[in-house]
Structure formats: structure tokens, C-alpha cells
Design brief:
345 residues; alpha/beta; Spore Coat Polysaccharide Biosynthesis Protein SpsA, Chain A; 2 domains; eight-stranded mixed beta sheet; two-stranded antiparallel ribbon; 10 strands; elongated
């Protein structure tokens, strides 16, 4: 099935229409890897004994990947192809795949053949046996250069775990499995795909991790470089703000503003002391100007917090977005046993 000319957000069908597993594969200039990847995916998924679909998201490839994917889709009824008009990036490709995934469990995997499709079964088994909501792959024996790939990744993983409190060894590993209902609570922008476990955990999901195989790249070349580390740091600042101050931005901006105003009392007091005790001139000292600058910056920060509070309320109220996530509702009525039901959308 080939999907084109559809820019509306896909509505996931009722649970009775869902297959067991959907595998989402973002593709960008991987023409030599597509066919062997599909063969491995099909073999691994057939061995699970579950219903499944494979979603290839062609992220504006210019090397013949599109034609190769269409050939695969024409011969396989459980394959869906989503073609982008241009290259929008891996986060957009993953988001599109998730939006169109009609499955109870959604698995993400790279198209470069470095992830092993045979690990999908391990992820799903751990997801179900330990009753987790998400399971992340850990490339413990990663087959990439150390200086420009593994070392920056190790530093980024440690930093993300420390800042977010969600401790994973390998945020950069695309091979992950999620329950459908967890992904319904996640919205991705920019290059936030590596932070899906963080957003899922913020919504109350139970996250696990398992070692997976990692293979050296044979065809094509990596789309990442050491520059990605700087993007991760900037994205992490955004994620930290969203997690901690999404509904209370005044605590951040207002707290910073009050601190600046309080700090202004130090140079102001010093200036007054110099004037009264030492008879020093105000105009010949930078202290009054420093105090005034701190006060102005503090007031501006408080006003920015007020604007952020208004934006947050507009965001939630205009879209009817709650500030909480309900897993299930248990209720009872006189003469009737307690019932559990799923929350209404």
C-alpha cells in the first residue's frame, strides 16, 4: 500500500482493527539496504506468530529508495509506504510512522541494517513478561568508531540520564518497542525522537532496557556526525523545561527574576554604605548602575514568566489538553461489582 498526498493527522482505528505489531522504519538514501532489511524483517516477524505490518517512511530519498520500496509494497500486502515530499528529518519520519501504525505494539528500527531485526522478538517478550510500557535497546557492543560516534554518544547518554532522571544506557539506539497507548501521549518536534522514553516516562510509562545486537554498516554512510552532540544539548534544555515547567513556567522565570531583584540589594546596599560611611560619590561608582540593571532584568524575567503562563493556559485550553494522564478508571454503583474502564478520549 502506498500512501501519498495526505497531510492530515491519521486517526488510529478502534482496537479491534489493530494488528499485534507494527514496525516503523525511517528511510533516507538506503537503497542498498532496503531489500536485505525487508527480508530479515519479514523472517523475524513471521517467526513471532503474530499479525504485523511494516511501515517504511521514505524521508525524501534521492537514491532510488522510493522505487525499491514501492516494489516491496506491491508484493507484500502488510507493507505500507509513506512518501515525504522532501527530507524532513528522522523525528518527522518516526512521527509519521507512529501516526499511521495500526497496532497494539509499535517497534522502531533503523534502515541501515545495523540493528538486528531478530531482536524485535526479545523486546516484545520483555515488554509483555515484565508488563512494561516501553523497552529500549542497548547497543552494548556498538560497532561504530569510538572518537566521533561512541564517545559523544556515551557523554550524551550520561547527561540525558542525569538531567531527566530516566536512566538508559543508549538513548541513540532507534530499536525500541512501545505500547500504542503510551505513544498516544507523546508529541515530537524538532529532533526529539531520541527523547521518546523521557516523554513516555513523564506520562507515567514504565521503561525497561535490554541488550541488542549491533552490526557494522556495510552499505551507505551514516547521516550523523559529532555535531549531533551539540544539538542534543540544546534539545535537552528544551526537554528539561517541558518536563519541569510545562504547566508552571512562572516558577522558572519568576524565580529567576526574584533572585535578580534580591541580588540587586547587595550592590545597592554597598553603594549606600560607601555614601554614608565613606562619603563616596554615587556617580563615580558602578554599584548603583549594577543594582538598577539587576532590578530591570529581574522585572523583565517576571513579566516573561507571566507571558509564559498565559501561553501555557492558551495551549491547554484551546486544544482541550488535560494536565494529567489517566491510565484507567475504576468505579462501582450500588448492587453492581466494581468495574474498570478505559478513560474516554
Amino acid at each position: 500500500m502506498v500512501i501519498r498526498n495526505n497531510n492530515s493527522r491519521y486517526r488510529v482505528p478502534a482496537p479491534d482493527d489493530l494488528v499485534d505489531v507494527a514496525v516503523v522504519v525511517p528511510v533516507y538514501n538506503e537503497v542498498d539496504n532496503i531489500e536485505p532489511l525487508h527480508d530479515e524483517l519479514s523472517t523475524a516477524l513471521d517467526g513471532l506468530g503474530r499479525s504485523y505490518m511494516i511501515i517504511y517512511v521514505n524521508d525524501g530519498s534521492r537514491d532510488g529508495s522510493k522505487r525499491k520500496l514501492e516494489q516491496i509494497a506491491s508484493a507484500n500486502p502488510n507493507v505500507m509506504i509513506i512518501d515525504f515530499r522532501r527530507n524532513f528529518g528522522q523525528t518527522a519520519a518516526i512521527t509519521a510512522g507512529i501516526d499511521y501504525a495500526r497496532a497494539h505494539i509499535v517497534v522502531l528500527i533503523d534502515a541501515d541494517l545495523q540493528n538486528d531485526p531478530n531482536d524485535i522478538g526479545k523486546l516484545i517478550d520483555k515488554l509483555e513478561t515484565e508488563e512494561l510500557d516501553a523497552i529500549s535497546g542497548w547497543r552494548k557492543n556498538r560497532q561504530d568508531p569510538f572518537l566521533n560516534r561512541r564517545l559523544p554518544s556515551m557523554m550524551a547518554n550520561s547527561l540525558i540520564s542525569w538531567v531527566t532522571g530516566v536512566h538508559l544506557h543508549d538513548y541513540g539506539c532507534t530499536l525500541k518497542a512501545y505500547r500504542r497507548e503510551v505513544l498516544d501521549e507523546v508529541r515530537l518536534y524538532g529532533e526529539m525522537h531520541r527523547f521518546i522514553p523521557v516523554f513516555a516516562a513523564a506520562a507515567g510509562a514504565q521503561i525497561g532496557e535490554i541488550e541488542v545486537h549491533h552490526r557494522p554498516r556495510i552499505h551507505g554512510k551514516s547521516k550523523y556526525g559529532i555535531w549531533r552532540t551539540f544539538k542534543v544539548i540544546l534539545d535537552l534544555i528544551t526537554v528539561s523545561f517541558i518536563l519541569n515547567y510545562r504547566t508552571t513556567p512562572m516558577y522558572l522565570f519568576g524565580g529567576f527574576g526574584v533572585s535578580l531583584v534580591a541580588a540587586s540589594l547587595i550592590p545597592a546596599g554597598a553603594a549606600v554604605y560607601r555614601k554614608i560611611v565613606l562619603n563616596a560619590s554615587f556617580t563615580r561608582s558602578p554599584l548603583p548602575l549594577l543594582a538598577l540593571t539587576l532590578v530591570i532584568l529581574g522585572i523583565q524575567s517576571i513579566l516573561m514568566g507571566l507571558l509564559a503562563e498565559l501561553l501555557v493556559r492558551t495551549y491547554h485550553e484551546s486544544q482541550g489538553k488535560p494536565i494529567y494522564v489517566v491510565q484507567r478508571i475504576t468505579e462501582s454503583t450500588p448492587g453492581v461489582d466494581a468495574l474498570e474502564r478505559e478513560p474516554q478520549a
